Amino acid sequence: MTALEAMQSRISMSKVTDAAPSHAELLPLISAAGRVAAHSSLRPWRLIELRGHDRERLGRAMNKADGHEGVSSKPQRAPLLIAVVASYRKSKVPRWEQEAVASGVAHMLSLFLDEAGWGVFWRTGDYTRSKAIAKAHGLTKDEALLGWLYVGGKPVGTRSGHRKQIDAERFFSRMPKGD
Q1: Taking the domains of the chain in order of start, what are their residue ranges?
Q2: Contact (Cβ atoms closer than 8 angstroms) between residue 52 and residue 21
Q3: Rounded Cα distance, 42 and 10, in Å
């Protein structure tokens, strides 16, 4: 499958099975995703693997962020969560660009996981900026959580590529003529 075919057939898989890739299976995918374009080769990102009890700890932090007791079931929606962290470096490269690189790594990784046969969806939201969530992930003051890739098996009978195709003409134009 070409990169173009992989991208055209990719869909977010909001329901996944309890199967998940092993740590060892993830390493070559992460290595490849880490080759995303990065100004000055800063590599301003890191990923955190959450499995088993880690997901329960995240659920507790989510409820704490909401001012509730107990454990949220949200992290239980997939057997593997991969936290995507922008790990800002002191550089002439602005923070927004470093964040874009971390987002690019997450997107590339989601494509590689999909191509390898895994179901993937990316979760973001207010939790990513919560102090309780940052503490649970061990983030430093120079890091920001961008979200989680939820990863699991693709349910039997799942079709890929049934998303509406993008009309490229609508989003692609020439630079306006100047003076």
Answers
A1: 19-155
A2: no
A3: 28
pTM of this prediction? 0.90
137 neighbors 149 (Cβ within 8 angstroms): no
Q: In a 3-state reduction of DSSP, which class is residue 31?
A: helix
State the Cα–Cα distance between residues 119 and 101, nearest whole angstrom.
Answer: 23
Determine the Cα–Cα distance for residues 30 and 38; give it in Å rounded to an integer. Answer: 15
142 contacts 88 by C-beta, under 8 angstroms: yes
pLDDT digits (tens, 9 = 90+) for 32-71: 999 988 777 889 999 999 999 999 999 999 999 999 999 9
Lowest mean pLDDT among 35-44, 131-140, 167-176: 35-44
Reading across the β-sheet that carries 118-123, which strands appear in turn? 45-51, 80-87, 143-153, 118-123
**Alpha helix positions (H), the chain:** 3-9, 23-33, 53-65, 95-115, 131-137, 168-171
Packing angle, helices 23-33 and 95-115, rounded to 10:
130
23, with CB counted inside 10 A (0-12, 13-18, 19+), is: exposed
Specify whether the backbone of 41 is left (phi greater than 0), alpha (psi in -120 to 50) or beta.
Answer: left
CATH 3.40.109.10 fits 19-155, yes or no: yes
